[in-house]
Amino acid sequence: MPVGKIIKALSGFYYVLYEGHIYQCRGRGNFRKKKVSPLVGDTVEFKAEKQDEGYILSIDKRKNEFVRPPIANVDQALIVTSAANPEFNALLLDRFLVLVEAKRIEPFVVISKMDQLDEGRANDMKVYQQMYESVGYPVILSAVNDAESMEQIRAHLAGRTTVIAGQSGVGKSSLLNTIDPRLSIDTDEISKSLGRGKHTTRHVELYEISGGLVADTPGFSSLEFGDLQLEQLPECFPEFVQVQDDCKFRGCLHNKEPKCAVKHGVEEGDISKQRYEHYLQFLEEIQNRKPRY
């Protein structure tokens, strides 16, 4: 049986890419009995008499999966945040980075709309770029008409399955359209009354772009740390992981414990004070989370 990859799910149909052709398939009934739903990104075995009459027979084991957006087997996350309109928000960026780290997915960051800044704010973004790169995250400062930044983004996409994430209005669809004009993904003006963008993307779909597959998604509709355990949070900050073995206590949460290497790093200026403050906010949020039954 042929083995392909689901690149789109819409209205109960799954569109499977196999040897350059797309097959429209339905899921078999036994998936429902097992409470398993095929996801975009799944590697599947399928059977098809014609291109529009196929059935998915089995789903390969996933290396990761998201619930919102519903997608599996992601290699990396392109997190788009804007320098302006909406304003750059480091707390929101750190929240995205934690959610991606929790899934063991490599992130890289694009700060869009750099062309809308004056020199002072542009320098502020360069300081953020240096700080995040010191943590280990690639950061690209981007403008839609900047060919060099677009080429850098294309190089990151080659040969990988990438999910694109970021709040509404930061220019995710515009970015993809610039990288590959064949896409013509719907974009929308910023909703001025709300100060944020309207959701223009309606379903999850993988596009072949720059030698890789890129998911333009309806956004991470849940930015809550629903499944993240307290002890997992420090592991989502790479700069904490680098020094945690020097903490006095094993399993240190880097909060009120004495002789904490992370707190020492913040005091010495080796760890970003702002990132650490965001960590404490997330820690409190998880501690105060209502239990699910």
UniProtKB/TrEMBL annotation:
UniProt: Zn(2+) binding residues: 247, 252, 254, 260
Chief site of localization: cytoplasm
Cell cycle listed as a keyword: no
Gene3D superfamilies: Nucleic acid-binding proteins, P-loop containing nucleotide triphosphate hydrolases, Probable gtpase engc, domain 3
Family named by the database record: Belongs to the TRAFAC class YlqF/YawG GTPase family. RsgA subfamily.
Subcellular location(s) of the protein: Cytoplasm
Domain spans labelled CP-type G: 63-223
Ligand binding (GTP): 112-115, 166-174
Cofactor note: Binds 1 zinc ion per subunit.
Pfam family, one: RsgA_N
EC number(s) per entry: 3.6.1.-
One GO cellular component, as annotated: cytoplasm
GO MF annotation terms: GTP binding; GTPase activity; metal ion binding; rRNA binding
EngC GTPase domain segment(s): 72-221
Keyword terms: Cytoplasm, GTP-binding, Hydrolase, Metal-binding, Nucleotide-binding, Ribosome biogenesis, RNA-binding, rRNA-binding, Zinc
Role: One of several proteins that assist in the late maturation steps of the functional core of the 30S ribosomal subunit. Helps release RbfA from mature subunits. May play a role in the assembly of ribosomal proteins into the subunit. Circularly permuted GTPase that catalyzes slow GTP hydrolysis, GTPase activity is stimulated by the 30S ribosomal subunit.
Binding partners and assembly: Monomer. Associates with 30S ribosomal subunit, binds 16S rRNA.
InterPro entries: G_CP_dom (IPR030378), NA-bd_OB-fold (IPR012340), P-loop_NTPase (IPR027417), Ribosome_biogen_GTPase_RsgA (IPR004881), RsgA_GTPase_dom (IPR010914), RsgA_N (IPR031944)
This protein's name: Small ribosomal subunit biogenesis GTPase RsgA
Residues annotated as transmembrane: none
GO BP term (any one): ribosomal small subunit biogenesis
Organism: Halobacillus halophilus (strain ATCC 35676 / DSM 2266 / JCM 20832 / KCTC 3685 / LMG 17431 / NBRC 102448 / NCIMB 2269)
Cofactor needs: Zn(2+)
Enzyme class: hydrolase
